[in-house]
Amino acid sequence: MEAILGLIPCLGFIGLLVLLLLFSAIKVVQEYERGVIFRLGRYVGAKGPGLFFIVPFIDRMVKVDLRTVTLDVPSQEAISRDNVTVKVNAVVYFRVLDPGKAVIQVEDYRRATWQIAQTTLRNVIGQSELDELLAHREKINNQLQQIIDEQTEPWGVKVSLVEVKDVELPQTMQRAMAKQAEAEREKRAKIIHASGELEASKTLAQAAEIITREPASLQLRYLQTLTEIAVEKNSTIIFPVPIDILTSLTEYMMQKTAAQAKKAAGEK
């Protein structure tokens, strides 16, 4: 009896040890996670999601998150192909497709992707002109996504999207671009004004041609002008005099003056 009582603490310790081993063998991973299993240092596969068992003290599990990661790339200062210093920041969206490669092929896939995104952003800026960065940003985004994705593919990481968020220009360049835009607007305004003058001159020429064929239309135009002036309720009255009358009167006065001068010369 005493021997049995002495074995109770040993049995309790063994039972506790068995429970600890059992709990250490049970693993649970979420739907968006995978457990990468290493058995005595060798990769044996990825398990999950849900409940599964591993061999205690022999297997080791590393959890890998499969959700899309949003990586903020800080501002990178670089010189564009047309020698303009700019600061550009971007955001990278990526996710792990192969958990085994993400653990085996690279020490920290998040940090490695972040470093590649920075260097690639500077390289692409150096190969692009300022107008491409401002007007063709979609092309720059696609180029960045393709280059970064090729670099991270051996790690089991898929880069789905890269977006350039902001392009910061020097103050001198901003002022120069503002002057250029203002000059461009003035140019368009002058072209539009000149086009309007051309169209107006063509219309006036057509109107003059019609009035020349129909002299009565000129008198109607005079009457219409008087009607428009009367609407303003002012005291100014304009009476149009045909140019032909003035011309005839001028010729008559010149002839009369010449006759008087000739008569005066004859009397002398």
Give the DSSP E fraction (strand runs of 2 or more residues): 15-25%
- Looking at the overall shape, the CATH architecture of the largest domain is 2-Layer Sandwich
What structural class is derived from the secondary structure elements? alpha+beta
Count of DSSP H/I helices = 8
Describe the oligomeric state of these chains in a short phrase.
Answer: single chain
Largest sheet: 3 strands, antiparallel
Descriptive keywords:
rod-shaped, alpha+beta, Tetrahydropterin Synthase, Chain A, three-stranded antiparallel sheet
Account of the protein in words:
By secondary structure, the protein is of the alpha+beta class. It has 3 domains: 2-64, no CATH class; 69-169, Band 7 domain (Tetrahydropterin Synthase, Chain A, 2-Layer Sandwich); 216-259, no CATH class. It is 57% helix and 24% strand. The strands form 3 sheets. Strands 3-2-5 form a 3-stranded antiparallel beta sheet. Helix 3 (109-126) crosses helix 5. The protein is rod-shaped.
